[in-house]
Write a sequence for this structure.
């Protein structure tokens, strides 16, 4: 079976541990071997703001650490996926790689250009496949209508993902949801950005974006939004309360990460294996519909 | 010869005598922004921009035009260049393969060197140089991880600190433009 270096990123292990717990449980269940590399650092995506080179050096550090262990990288965060994939793409160019390696050698590292970056959803989709997931699903999720949310950096820039998805019309998460019997609902703002990367600069911009998506989902009889990035999670879950207060709304939409939904279908313990008790919007209505 | 040419915009009048004609090449010298000349201002970037939708003043097409005209100061001290949500729609939709997201990063880098970076990004880079990640060690989450039987994090900022220094990003000091 597949073997990967687990890249946790900054936000999942510190702010959204339920994503990590459920991801680890899913990997164990399917025999996807994950190795923790303690020396991994931030993917560098935000450092690009001040210095493109700093961001690239940080991504290259992580790629080199994984390469040293002869492993590809498995990510949880969409933004880490995008940053590391984009860097890996840039570092395929010999000249760029030489320039970066020239600096990396001062911390005892070299990147030769051999690491693939894979988000956990893509690993499930490509390494296991929809049929295998279908076969394993034990519980009945057919009463659940959910809104998929992909995460911008899971899809873009397209050039960094070997044509894995069509960013304007993505399908893989829809299929992963259908595979376990739940119903993925299409909606107008499917591809609307959560705004997570601009949150440190302007909370107001994020509130406007989050409100727009939640308003769009309001009358669609949605049981939950299913996503695959902890930053998107924090925007739609934690910012949901702020939006309610700011704009006088009553949104109460459960937000769930795909490995958690998959775990429910596989019969995992909602608290022990999936950390659903850590959510601030109650998951009870979702759990009630699963038999 | 020196007669002032008026270039009308919706908000204010700008004058070509104020333009810095080297700005375009200064930006395009960076490989990430080298495709900017192909822009023919069709506005697909702006039409697909989620930030523009909620805050129309943020306008990728306008920023691209301002760079090409040489409005160096107005671009670099504009708070708008920091409002990108990094969704990549602009480059995804661009018929001319201009990677505006990358162009914007080049603009931010130049602006940062000149003291215009928002303090949040400077603080975050300082944090990464300490712990290797964008968060500090807080008892709240360290304890939570223990309770959940998750492996402890190493949080060693030495490598990150060194490469941040090598890139010069540690030298960036700024006041918040707001």
């Amino acid at each position: 079976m597949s073997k990967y270096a687990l890249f946790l990123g900054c936000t999942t292990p510190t702010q959204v541990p339920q994503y990590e717990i459920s991801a680890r449980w899913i990997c164990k269940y399917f025999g996807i071997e994950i190795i923790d590399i303690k020396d991994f650092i931030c993917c560098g995506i935000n450092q690009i703001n001040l210095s493109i080179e700093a961001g690239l050096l940080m991504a290259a550090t992580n790629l080199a650490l994984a390469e040293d262990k002869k492993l590809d990288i498995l990510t949880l965060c969409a933004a880490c996926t995008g940053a590391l994939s984009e860097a890996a793409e840039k570092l395929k160019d010999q000249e760029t790689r030489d320039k970066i390696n020239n600096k990396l050698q001062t911390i005892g590292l070299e990147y030769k250009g051999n690491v693939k970056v894979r988000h956990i959803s893509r690993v499930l989709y490509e390494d296991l496949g929809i049929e295998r997931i279908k076969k394993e699903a034990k519980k009945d999720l057919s009463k659940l209508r959910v809104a998929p949310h992909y995460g911008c950096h899971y899809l873009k820039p397209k050039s960094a993902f070997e044509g894995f998805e069509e960013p304007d019309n993505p399908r893989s998460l829809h299929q992963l949801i259908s595979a376990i019997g739940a119903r993925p609902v299409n909606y107008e703002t499917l591809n609307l950005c959560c705004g997570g990367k601009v949150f440190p600069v302007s909370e107001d911009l994020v509130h406007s974006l989050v409100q727009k998506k939640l308003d769009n989902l309001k009358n669609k009889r949605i049981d939950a939004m299913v996503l695959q990035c902890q930053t998107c999670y924090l925007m739609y879950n934690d910012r949901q309360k702020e939006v309610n207060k700011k704009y006088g709304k009553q949104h109460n939409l459960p937000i769930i990460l795909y490995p958690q939904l998959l775990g429910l279908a596989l019969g995992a313990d909602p608290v022990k294996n999936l950390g659903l008790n850590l959510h601030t919007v109650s998951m009870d209505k979702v759990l009630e519909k699963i038999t | 010869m020196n007669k002032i040419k008026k270039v009308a915009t919706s908000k204010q009048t700008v004058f070509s005598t104020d333009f810095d004609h080297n700005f375009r090449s200064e930006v395009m010298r960076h490989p990430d922004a080298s495709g900017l000349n192909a822009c023919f201002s069709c506005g697909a970037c702006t039409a697909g921009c989620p930030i523009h939708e909620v805050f129309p003043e943020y306008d990728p097409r306008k920023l691209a035009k301002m760079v090409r005209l040489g409005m160096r100061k107005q671009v670099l001290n504009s708070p708008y260049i920091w409002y990108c949500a990094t969704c990549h729609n602009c480059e995804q939709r661009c018929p001319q393969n201009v990677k505006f997201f990358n162009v914007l990063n080049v603009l931010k880098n130049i602006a940062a060197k000149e003291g215009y970076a928002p303090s949040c990004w400077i603080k975050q880079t300082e944090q990464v140089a300490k712990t290797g990640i964008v968060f500090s060690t807080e008892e709240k989450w360290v304890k939570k991880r223990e309770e959940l039987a998750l492996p402890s994090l190493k949080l060693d900022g030495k490598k990150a600190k060194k490469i941040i220094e090598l890139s010069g990003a540690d030298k960036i000091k700024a006041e918040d433009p707001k």
Q: What stands out?
A: Residues 1-8 of chain B have pLDDT under 50 and may be disordered. The beta strands of chain B are 6-8, 13-15. The CA atoms of residues 142 and 152 of chain B lie 8 Å apart.
